Amino acid sequence: MILERKFRVPRCWSNQELLKMAHLFQGSIANVSGWMDADKEGKKYKDYFTRASEYWITNYKPEARGFQGNQTNEIYLDLAAPLEQALKGRFDVVFNHTVLEHVFKIETAFTNLCSMSKDVVVIVVPFLQEQHGAYGDYWRFTPQAVEKLFSENGLTTLYMNFNDSANASIYLFAVGARCPERWDSIVGMPGNQRKQIATINLGTKLFKVSWFERTVIKLFKILRLSDL
User: Fold this and answer.
1) What is the pLDDT of residues 43-57, one digit of tens each?
2) Which of 48, 62, 171, 210 would staple 22 via disulfide (CB 3.0–4.6 Å)?
3) Which residues does the chain have with pLDDT short of 50?
4) pTM
5) Number of structural domains found in the chain
6) For the domain that residue 148 is a member of, what is the CATH number?
């Protein structure tokens, strides 16, 4: 799949973030709303989690064509609806990539993700991205919002990072856990900006005007004044 730069850069970046730590996770793992489980670089996300004892994919209701992939170990799940009792605490790790912006009942959806996991939740959400609302596009997330959502669901934010790229969408990659004492290896990973959440000026690279652009703007103003 060929992606435009504005989509390719954050996708490749978030995939690399996941690769840094996916090998640490064991047990039952679920890619929630994972569709075909594709990482859009030619691999399956299942391949990232090399120590998983079982791997599941959840998708939207089967009658919603295009929202499921008829995959092995596929569960049908509406994140905006109350979670079935059988799915509560069902998995050791829950992974969710760029789905939450499409669920209007965001607090319900986030709570469901956390409720499905015994311990770890890994999410990727957009901080800044053009609207892509063919099937609903409602939310963008700040680092503080993600940390607060984890906290309200009983999880501690272990890791937070973002790509903050120029001329591309900006994604947040975050990991929360119920048992943070088990994950010092993740807390200490390079790139973790969890402690800077309150002071980060995210998006500055995208909006920074280059020296060349400033020069062109000044020349344009001079030319306009000379015509008066």
Assistant:
1) 999 999 999 999 999
2) 48
3) 1-2
4) 0.87
5) 1
6) 3.40.50.150
